[in-house]
Design a protein that fits this description.
CATH class: Alpha Beta
Structural class: alpha/beta
CATH topology: TIM Barrel
Shape: globular
Distance between the termini: 94 Å
CATH superfamily: Glycoside hydrolase/deacetylase
């Protein structure tokens, strides 16, 4: 028995079917493709110690990419820097002075001290917040002594929770428990990975940046803290353009679990260098 496939009609039909399938596959690829920017590993650059010098702050705010400015409370240019940072789309956090084991003369106004009671903590913290507009979080300025004190950190994180702000542990002490206490109390928190300018010479800056890149490539993100030193400013101007070609520069709020919508898992990494204060 013979079967008539009507070959002269089926060939065009099969050809059309194949084109249709190819088009559907192409559409599916377009639907599930991930934007290139979303594939990039993220670096959050936090600039500490701002508020006393508006000229250097303006230079830093002109750098390419989104950053985080950490402003000291009750400083003369806090409001101006906050305004400019907001206009540039940067995150603004309070750089909260906390008692360290050394150099109390470097704390500045608005410092939290171990001699204070809980009510004093509350009053000082809230007055500090009022001095800096648009604050969404805070990190510690110095604080090697206070961040090791579980009672004081519990007071502080309870106050922070009531204000719905997050905490960045600068990890000025290897024995800091501040991040752990924040997690226990329910304050969105993250820890510093790298101090860029623990030493401000070019060789050290380059090494620290390479370490930050390594962490970002390995786990998808890194928190890098630096300071408004002239050497640091020059280094950032020279390197941020190239850095943006490989990494996405983001405000710290994008990396804080429970505060942002980030889904990347947090990987515990020991800091390469810790500050002595």
């Amino acid at each position: 028995m013979s079967i008539n496939f009507q070959s002269k009609n089926i060939i065009p039909s099969v050809f059309c079917l194949l084109l249709s399938l190819a088009g559907s596959a192409s559409s599916r690829e377009e639907q599930i493709s991930i934007p290139k920017q979303d594939k990039q590993n993220r670096i959050s650059i936090v600039i500490d110690d701002l508020g006393d010098n508006s000229i250097i702050a303006k230079k830093l705010l002109a750098l390419p990419g989104t950053m985080t400015v950490a402003i000291l409370p009750h400083t003369p240019h806090a409001k101006l820097i906050s305004k400019l940072a907001t206009e540039h789309g940067h995150d603004i956090i309070m750089h909260l002075p906390m008692e360290a084991f050394t150099r109390p003369d470097l704390l500045g106004p608005g410092a939290l001290m171990s001699s204070m009671d809980e009510q004093a903590f509350d009053t000082v913290f809230k007055n500090n917040l009022k001095s800096i507009p648009n604050v969404i979080g805070f990190n510690n300025h110095m604080g090697s002594l206070l961040t090791e004190d579980p009672e004081k950190m519990s007071w502080l994180m309870s106050i922070a929770k009531s204000r719905s702000i997050f905490f960045l542990d600068s990890k000025t002490s290897q024995s800091s428990i501040a991040e752990n206490i924040a997690n226990q109390i329910g304050v969105p928190t993250i820890g510093r990975d790298i101090f860029l300018d623990h030493k401000s010479n070019l060789n050290s800056l380059e090494k620290q940046l390479e370490r930050a890149k390594f962490i970002a490539r390995k786990v998808g993100q890194v928190v890098l803290i630096c300071h408004p030193y002239p050497e640091t400013v020059d280094f950032l101007f020279a390197n941020l353009g190239e850095l943006q070609s490989e990494f996405k520069l983001v405000g710290i709020s994008q990396l804080v679990p429970q505060y942002s919508n980030a889904t990347a898992g947090k990987v515990e990494i020991s800091p390469f260098l810790s500050s002595s204060d």
